[in-house]
Structure formats: structure tokens, C-alpha cells
Amino acid sequence: MEATSRPFPQSIDETLKLLSEADYVADRALATVLFLALRMKRPLFLEGEAGVGKTEIAKVLAEALGRPLIRLQCYEGLDVSSAVYEWNYAAQMIEIRMEEAEGRVDRGAMEKNVFSEKYLIRRPVLQALEGKKGAAPVFLIDELDRTDESFEAFLLEILADFQVTVPELGTIKAEEPPIVIITTNRTREIHDALKRRCLYHWVDYPDAARELDIVARKVPQANQRLSAEVVSFVQKLRQLELFKVPGVAETIDWAGALTELDKVALDPETVSDTIGVLLKYQDDIARIEQGEGRRLLKEVKAELAAAE
Asked: Which residues are in the AAA+ ATPase domain (predicted)?
């Protein structure tokens, strides 16, 4: 059964409520730019470190609005045939041979037949442009910085006019523009021409209170004391000069892993045994195991005890 699309929020407060009801804990700045993107029908460009919840925004928005989510996962070498459309060449060849076998050799009619929509394979971009009025999909262009500049340039027409040209069929224009969310981890700079077509927001790591709220929603079975210690420990880790500091996704994973181990509080041994859930580079792990971890844990325990 198709999801029933719901109307856009009519205020920033309604946008905050919409996200909260879908268990996404947003700050007011994010809710504001998201509200404006929906009202102005402009793409939203989200930049930030990996694991801060950029992709999740698109997923939550699609769920909250009852819209389909179409995701274009970017990677090096992504081209038009993978992103927009391609022809089903195998089916076309079979059709051509069947027509020849039946003696139908009218080249014009044959070409018109094999280059009909019947043989068109729709990739994410084309799927996003074919949404119906009042039910346009959420179109997630994820990790755009992984592609090259030529593909980035190709997106300019799509983001400006919400249309794409298929030479054999003509121009396909969106009946209603999709809700476009673009994410980047800033491994390279995105050209200003693309950014100008979008509203922009930097998604930062949450403060301790908001991150604790996130953990409470995503890992509701976790012990409250454990959740507080996990969040405080991660917040302190982010102040260190690590190769890759943990994102919110890692905080949630760590709280979930510790809960699976029936832990109700952190201790040095537990931190050492499970640090691979939180950190993904050996140099960072070695630094924590060589004394930094114990120091941070001691600070966490002292601060929480003082706050009680």
C-alpha cells in the first residue's frame, strides 16, 4: 500500500515537531532551513562530518511526510547511465531479432518501437522527476563530494529546472519538483554554481543534552546512567585531535553494544574491550588505550557525580 502524503509543516515549530515525532532531534537552525526549503521548493545542501545525521534527515523527512525516498548514492566514476537512465539493450536486441524474423523491416518503425519507454530503465534521477503532483518524492543525493566535477556540472540543469533530456524521447520535466536533499562530507569543495541553487546548512555534532536525547530515543533500553556516561565520554573524545572523531551514529552503536553486554556503567576494561565500536582507526584506539581513555573516564565519573 502506498504511503499517504501529508502536507508540509506551516511553521518552524511544526517542523521541529514533525522531526521530533519521527525521533530526529533537531535544533531550531536546522528546522528553520528545512522549513524554508520546503516552502521555497529549493534543494537543501547539508554539509558536515560523517556520522552527524545528514542522511538520516532525508529518511526521516520522507517518513514524516509520507513520501517515497529515492536515494542516489554517489561514488567516484558515477555517470549518467547509472544516475539517470539507460536502455535495456538485451531486451531491445531480442525485439529487433523478433521483428526481423517476422519480416518487419521498416527501420523507422523498428527504431521507434525499441526506443520507447517500454525499454527505458529509470535510474534515481529520472525516478525522482516522475513523482505525481502532491506526492513528489524526497530525492537524496548522498555524499556528492565522492563524484567528480563533471557529474556535479550535470546536476546543475536538474536542480535549476527539474528536468532531464532523453534524446530518443525528449525532455522529461517534473510535474512537481522533488524534495531534494544533498549531503557532503566535505572531502572536496563543491562548486559555487551548485551551491547557489540550494539552501545551505552545516550539520554539526550535537551538544551533550541533545545527544543524550538522541541516545534515549534510539536506544531506549539503555540504562540512564550508562547513557549519560557514554555521551559525556564521546563529547570529551571529540575534543581530542583524533584522526576521526566518533559521530552520533557511533555513539548510538556504542550505547547499543554496551546494553547488549548488560552494562549499567562504564569502567576501564569495558571501554578498552568495546572501543572498536566507537573508533575506527588503530592510531586513535592506541592513544585511548595508552592512558587517555582512563583519564577521560575519570573526568566523566567526577563530573556526573558532582552534578548529582
From this structure: 40-206
